[in-house]
Specification:
single chain, binds adenosine-5-diphosphoribose, alpha/beta, six-stranded mixed β-sheet, 421 residues, 37% helix, 21 strands, eight-stranded mixed β-sheet, FAD/NAD(P)-binding domain
């Protein structure tokens, strides 16, 4: 104990921002702060190899691509392939192509698996001399309500360390420590369990021509590209189902039936998991000098691909706010961080919820019943036939719906780039 205390005294460091977590949120915050000349240290509990292999989301929406472009980072951090903006809906085997093209100029969305984005963000940050410490154990946050918070952790060599800072960016996901450092009652959690399970399958099998969402009486199914020779599939299932109940044969039979494609090519399955669809928002996304960014603040059900994109949005808003404060003492961005992010969070929660209900209720494999099945099919019919409805859908898919947000309008109109003062 005495040795630990001595070590800690000896190793107190100081920086402007401690970023906790090196996922998409944390590495975006770190790169944007570095691009603004703001000091930061990133602490990540896992190894670099683990973090850079973790597979999750697969699409960087148009708004987020333009955000990276605006910061001069798009070429360095975005991998994958451009997305032509066409999404296929297959309803009882009938194909409907919906374009999310909004007609505006500028770079569009990319099919970029999350781990590629994280790998590239990490490489860019380290190449620029960024401070990133993997395998940081026992991270704890102190004095968040004071002027100078401290973050303590045990480094990979076993030594106890402490960093004092002006701000902490809690980018450590839904199961991290940042949010748990907030006193009880300071945040309100709004949670929704959709009562729906998804079996998720990763396989070495040909990707579809377009990301594909399918409605069928047997339940929802989806097929997404994950590189030139790999695919991610989803199959609606009871939330308490077990992956072992899904043999390879059962998986491919169910996909062929629900996708209405008896010729679907199978391949070796490399991952098989079941999860419950859930949504969660913490309000406010700030406590004292701690700012929650990404999954640490909110979870969006995966339909619509908004989880990672919201994390990128929060990161952009936070980095601009810190930059303005550090450069000119303007604390407007910090004071409005939570309300500004929550406005977009609820907007995307609503889109994700709408799409989740529509595609599951239309198949009638939920408890929703025939009335809701008709409502959901009416919504799909409107989407396939009304240009106005298709345009509204495109705005939400691309993330270009301004929702009155000055940051989004700034990116869209390029009124003043983030590098500008
Ligand atoms: N100390 C340090 N790092 C931690 C700790 C901790 N106690 N707990 C978790 N972490 C790290 C995780 O190992 C992970 O690398 O924080 C990171 C959190 O990353 P994500 O969970 O990916 O969250 P986020 O960066 O907000 O990404 C947004 O979008 O596609 C969705 O949910 C998906 O992960 C995705 C998210």
């Amino acid at each position: 104990m005495a040795e630990d205390a001595r070590q800690l005294r000896d190793s107190v460091e100081s920086t402007t921002v401690v970023v906790i977590g090196a996922g998409p949120a944390g590495m975006t915050v770190a790169n944007l702060l570095r691009g603004s000349g703001v000091d930061c240290v990133v602490l990540e509990s896992r190894s670099r190899a683990y973090v850079s292999q973790r597979q999750r989301a697969g699409i960087v929406e148009t708004r987020a691509v333009r955000m990276f472009d605006d910061w001069g980072l798009a070429d360095r951090v975005l991998g994958g392939v451009p997305y032509d903006g066409i999404l296929e809906f297959r309803v009882d085997g009938d194909r409907h192509l919906v374009s999310d093209s909004d007609g505006s100029n500028g770079p569009a969305a990319r099919l970029c698996p999350q781990q590629i984005l994280v790998q590239k963000l990490t490489a860019a940050y380290l190449e620029d001399g960024g401070d990133l410490r993997f395998e940081a154990a026992d991270v704890s946050l102190h004095d968040l309500a004071g002027d100078r918070p401290t973050v303590r952790y045990r480094s990979v060599d076993g030594a106890l360390r402490a960093i004092t800072c002006d701000f902490v960016a809690g980018c450590d996901g839904d199961h991290g420590v940042s949010r748990t450092a907030v006193p009880d009652g300071a945040l309100t959690a709004y949670a929704l369990d959709h009562g729906i399970g998804w079996l998720t399958i990763l396989a070495d099998a040909p990707p579809p021509a377009h990301p594909l969402l399918a409605v069928s009486p047997q339940g929802f199914a989806a097929h997404f590209p994950r590189g030139p020779h790999a695919s991610r599939y989803y199959l609606q299932c009871p939330p308490d189902d077990h992956p072992d109940a899904w043999t390879d044969t059962r998986v491919w039979d169910a996909l062929r039936t629900r996708l209405g494609d008896q010729a679907l090519t199978s391949g070796p399955i490399t991952e098989r998991e079941i999860f419950r669809l859930r949504s969660l928002v913490h309000d406010p996304m700030q406590y004292g000098r701690l700012f929650l960014v990404g999954d640490a603040a909110h979870i969006v059900s995966p339909m619509g691909g908004k989880g990672m994109n919201l994390a990128l949005y929060d990161a952009d808003v936070f980095a601009r706010a810190v930059r303005d404060f550090v450069r000119g003492g303007d604390d407007t961005g910090l004071r409005t961080y939570s309300s500004r992010c929550l406005r977009r969070v609820w907007n995307d929660q609503e889109f994700s919820h709408w799409l989740t209900r529509t595609l599951h209720d239309a198949g009638d494999a939920t408890d929703a019943g025939p009335f809701h099945r008709h409502l959901a099919r009416a919504r799909l019919d409107r989407l396939f036939t009304s240009p106005g409805a298709a345009r509204a859908f495109a705005d939400l898919m691309t993330g270009l719906d301004p929702t009155g947000d000055p940051v989004t309008q700034d990116v869209l109109g390029n009124l003043s780039g983030p590098g500008g003062g």
